[in-house]
Design goal:
With 604 residues, the protein is α/β, with parallel strands linked by helices. It has 14 helices and 38 strands. The chain has 5 domains: 88 residues, no CATH class; 109 residues, no CATH class; 89 residues, Immunoglobulin-like (Sandwich), CATH 2.60.40; 213 residues, 3-Layer(aba) Sandwich (Rossmann fold), CATH 3.40.50; 48 residues, no CATH class. The strands form 10 sheets. It has an 8-stranded mixed sheet with strand order 18-17-16-19-20-27-26-25. Strands 5-4-3-6-7 form a 5-stranded parallel sheet, with helices on one face. This is Carboxypeptidase regulatory-like domain-containing protein.
Length: 604
């Protein structure tokens, strides 16, 4: 609650108590002196007037003043028409300032030197992070400059697992018939795409060894000329091996393919296949609380679930609520019992008729396919004959309900729902084992790795949250840091984040060198890429324009309509309050209006 509201409450309560005292005193007046009604009414009126005048004296109402408009020149303002205004200021990143413009180190300094400026007109690419807080609700207009040709948006996953597929998407501006390519760290072409009419594109690639790597996104025009090349940071996690429990109701080729995928991915695998009649093979633990708590992900087919008893099903649901991820493979329509169990957990799914699906096999060029799939292994080397060869056609039952999982499959192939601290999912793809059998183990891994990443138990370490990209000389915001967090620069220097009192748990850093930095906290360590000051200018300009447009939308009024005000003078109100309070004090102590009632004697 604001101090103004507290002041109003205190004054109203005080005035109410004073009026109540006067009324009660009048009603309880007895024999000797009885105050006149007009006297009590006058005291009540003076009390209320005194309270109102005191409130206005402490918080005088604002008065309208002549508005001043401040034109702010930012980067890219060269060549743009400057709106007519009394004052024009140029911020450091702006180019050649027009005659009469004042050079200012930041917007806050400009507003301190021109306190009457109640409306701002920003010209150019937009306000840097250091200047946005200084707007403080003033009326704001924005005259944007044309963005440079090249990348305007570029989005890549923050983290991915080794061997997993990932997607880079974005938008290019100012280029007709643009073609975008993705190069791996070795300079090999991985993926290409034509930008659509809006400039949007999507590129796919495969993560390799754990660590922080740099891919390159390159945009060419219609004449195949390179317009811009931008680094894309890809962080491949070196997390602890995922603990996977694999349960099958009967021997099947999908079980064998999943075992091979788990081993190739480096998971800690325990498995079991049932033969019927209580017989089975494998080293899977019992379905008890302790055993399930030691797993990160359970994969079981619908037949195995149907074979579980009521106690095992209850234990499984309890483990999911405790953080375990469970994926049920149901290539046929789930049984009524399974549907009911899923519904009790909060996941209501419906299946449609089976449809055919054929995975995207990637580039048809051998070199690009090798970069797409990787070099292979000793027992499964890369096969050049796979280039241009179609993948097997698979079938699945489209699912509705829940949320779609990550991965290379269509959204209706797998659906999931958060249950307590864990996640529960269903996948209906049939015969995915045909993919590794046809030499495309990478497509099989892309499917199941994406689903596993969606459902597996989350780690204990809470990752920091980043606001936008990091750039030399620009303030960047990082949230979720502890008090001892530090940022290690490539040259070995240490940057201490400065906490922001206005943002809960967030801090600002100002990098001074380009390259990979590392954020060290008590919970772990995370790499981040800091771009050079002149790198990826299109991305930086687009970010400035989005942030400035957000300030314009948040402004309550436009430059032409916002009334400018300033606090009024307090002394007339306080003088009036003093006069009224003196009259109230004088009347309260005067004998005027007090009529004496003569005492009556018996027999008189």
């Amino acid at each position: 609650m604001s101090p103004e509201r507290w002041l109003l409450i205190v004054l109203v309560v005080g005035a109410a108590l004073a009026v109540l005292r006067l009324v009660v005193g009048h009603l309880r007046a007895t024999s000797d002196v009885c105050p006149a009604v007009w006297r009590t009414c006058a005291l009540v009126a003076l009390t209320l007037v005194s309270t109102s005048l005191l409130y206005r004296g402490l918080l005088p109402p604002p008065v309208a003043v002549e508005r001043g408009t401040l034109v702010v020149l930012t980067a890219g303002a060269d060549g743009l028409a400057v709106p007519a205004a009394e004052t024009v200021v140029a911020l450091p990143e702006s180019g050649d300032a027009p005659p009469g413009a004042e050079r200012m180190p930041d917007l806050a300094t400009a507003l301190r030197r021109h306190p009457d400026a109640r409306a701002l007109v920003v010209v150019g690419h937009g306000l840097e992070a250091r200047d946005r807080d200084a707007v403080e609700g003033r009326a704001l207009a924005f005259v944007p400059a044309e963005a440079p040709a090249g990348f305007a948006e570029l989005v890549a996953p923050d983290h991915t697992g080794a061997g997993a597929r990932f997607e880079v998407q974005g938008r290019v501006a100012g280029i007709d018939a643009a073609r975008v390519s993705l190069m791996d760290p070795a300079g090999r072409l991985v993926s290409t795409a034509e930008a659509d009419d809006g400039g949007h594109f999507r590129l796919g690639a495969t993560a390799r060894d754990a660590g922080a790597t740099l891919f390159d996104a390159v945009v060419h025009d219609a004449e195949a000329r390179e317009i811009e090349r931008v680094q894309v940071p890809v962080i491949v996690d070196a997390a602890a091996p995922l603990r996977v429990l694999l349960i099958a109701g009967a021997p099947n080729p999908d079980m064998r393919a999943l075992r091979r995928w788990s081993e190739d991915a480096g998971f800690t695998l325990r498995w079991r296949t049932s033969f019927g009649g209580g017989a089975g093979v494998g080293d899977a633990p019992a379905f008890d609380a302790a055993s399930l708590a030691a797993q990160d992900l359970m994969l079981l087919d619908a037949r195995a679930w149907d074979g579980l008893g009521a106690g095992a099903r209850a234990s499984l649901l309890t483990a999911v609520r405790g953080g375990l991820g469970v994926l049920i493979h149901a290539p046929q329509a789930p049984s009524a019992a399974l549907r009911g169990w899923l519904r009790s957990a909060g996941l209501t799914v419906e299946t449609g008729r089976a449809v055919d699906w054929q995975p995207d096999v990637g580039p048809d060029d051998v070199a690009r396919l090798r970069a797409w799939m990787g070099p292979g292994s000793d027992d499964a080397p890369f096969d050049p004959a796979l280039a241009g060869e179609a993948a097997p056609t698979l079938t699945y039952l489209p699912l509705s309900g829940g949320a779609p999982g990550q991965g290379d499959g269509p959204p209706g192939m797998m659906r999931w729902q958060a249950v307590g601290q864990g996640r529960l999912g269903v996948v209906t793809l049939a015969d995915s084992w045909q993919l590794p059998l046809s030499g495309r183990a990478d497509l099989h891994a892309g499917l199941w790795s994406g689903w596993a990443g969606t459902l597996a138990r989350a780690g204990d370490a809470a990752e920091p949250r980043f606001d936008g990209e990091f750039r030399v000389g620009t303030r960047s915001t990082v949230c979720g840091l502890d008090a001892g967090a530090r940022v290690q620069a490539p040259d070995g220097t240490t940057i201490a984040p400065i906490p922001d009192p206005a943002a809960n748990g967030c801090a600002g850093i100002w990098p001074t060198a380009a390259g990979w930095h590392r954020i060290d906290t008590a919970a772990g360590s995370w790499p981040v890429l800091v771009r050079a000051e002149g790198d990826a200018t299109g991305l930086h300009v687009a970010a400035l324009q989005r942030a400035t447009q957000a300030l314009v939308r948040a402004s309550d009024a436009t430059v032409g309509t916002m009334p400018a005000t300033r606090p009024g003078r307090a002394w007339p109100w306080l003088l009036a309050w003093l006069c009224v309070t003196a009259a109230l004090w004088s009347l309260g102590r005067a004998r005027i209006g007090r009529r004496r009632v003569p005492a009556s004697f018996p027999g008189a």
